[in-house]
Design goal:
about 325 residues, about 0% strand
Length: about 325
């Protein structure tokens, strides 16, 4: 017969997307914030980003060379990790470049490669590296600066710590990023543009970031906080669009993504409002990353044509004679 049916194993739905293409979209989405960090904090922000990217790529290539594995640097995942790691550091880290290099080693070698490489890591590499560095080098990781004063002047507090009023000037400052903080979390406009680009190109699913941001907004209102300040401050936008949406460490079902986002929002607000630290995005993402395997199991879809076990047994008489 001319039209014979060909039976093959799954997957049956194919797509032209590759890891390199997806990571390329993420890099494009991050570029506006890279440019904004250079404008706000100066050329030192570009130096810091370049060092972390080079360190991540270098450690990945060196590890694979030593372990005689195929070099995956071409998939650009190490580049994305390097940019995100830099975004989680203050610009003053250019004076202590050994710290970003340590962070790159933690992210690429300890979190990613030792667990089997891309697709096998249990948590977002950049998130784990930031938390480890924040605990190990607390003073250096919290040495924020006022952009207009240069890298040698310390800022007194980030907007989350200062808890500013939500007037027009404050909101414009948060949107433009002209305040102290890490280099990739201050300019809300570029982060939003990057997030919209990722959604428009279908690089990420909009369910997760919308659930995350929506939960933070609702919880903030219920807790008597200003929702706009909470949404535009700290690492929320960076985490919601670029870190929580990591393919490997986020659920793959619609329900799982929804639950994941809500869980992130609740944890972030609980840490921000009731813990002894102003920010909770990194810890929230790490905690929820560890719960992803359970969310995938609890929210997995029923196979097409599958029958309920109980009903099947009743119909076949396996469960005993019906009354």
């Amino acid at each position: 017969m001319a039209n014979n049916l060909i039976v093959t194993s799954s997957p049956h739905i194919q797509d032209s997307a590759t890891t390199r293409k997806l990571m390329g979209h993420v890099i494009i989405a991050l570029l506006p914030t890279v440019a904004a960090s250079a404008i706000i904090f100066g050329w030192e922000a570009l130096l810091l980003t370049g060092v972390t990217v080079a360190a991540c790529v270098g450690f990945e290539a060196l590890y694979c060379l030593l372990m005689k594995k195929k070099n995956p640097v071409g998939d650009l995942s190490a580049v994305v990790t390097g940019i995100l790691l830099a975004f989680n550091m203050p610009v003053t880290m250019v004076h202590e470049l050994y710290i970003p290099i340590i962070g790159a080693f933690i992210a690429v070698v300890l979190v990613k490669q030792l667990f089997g490489g891309l697709g096998m890591n249990f948590a977002n590499p950049a998130i784990v590296a930031r938390i480890v560095l924040a605990i190990s080098f607390t003073d250096s990781m919290t040495r924020w600066v006022f952009p207009q004063n240069g890298v040698d002047v310390l800022a007194s507090a980030t907007p989350l710590a200062a808890n500013p009023p939500a007037d027009g000037q404050t909101l414009m400052t948060l949107l433009m990023g002209n305040y102290g903080g890490v280099i990739g979390e201050t300019c809300a406009i570029t982060l939003l543009l990057g997030g919209v680009y990722l959604i428009a190109t279908k690089t990420i699913n909009a369910v997760l970031p919308i659930a995350y941001l929506g939960t933070v907004a609702v919880f903030s209102i219920l807790a008597g906080q200003n929702a706009l300040v909470q949404l535009l401050s700290g690492g929320l936008l960076l985490g919601a669009f670029f870190m929580a949406t990591d393919y490997v460490t986020s659920p793959f079902t619609f329900t799982g993504k929804l639950a994941f986002g809500i869980g992130l929002g609740l944890l972030t607000c609980l840490i921000r409002f009731y813990a002894n630290m102003p920010e909770g995005v990194s810890y929230s993402i790490l905690i929820m990353n560890l719960l992803v395997p359970y969310l995938n199991v609890l929210t997995r879809q029923k196979p097409l044509g599958a029958r309920k076990e109980k009903k099947h047994k009743e119909n076949t008489g396996e469960g005993g004679a019906k009354a």
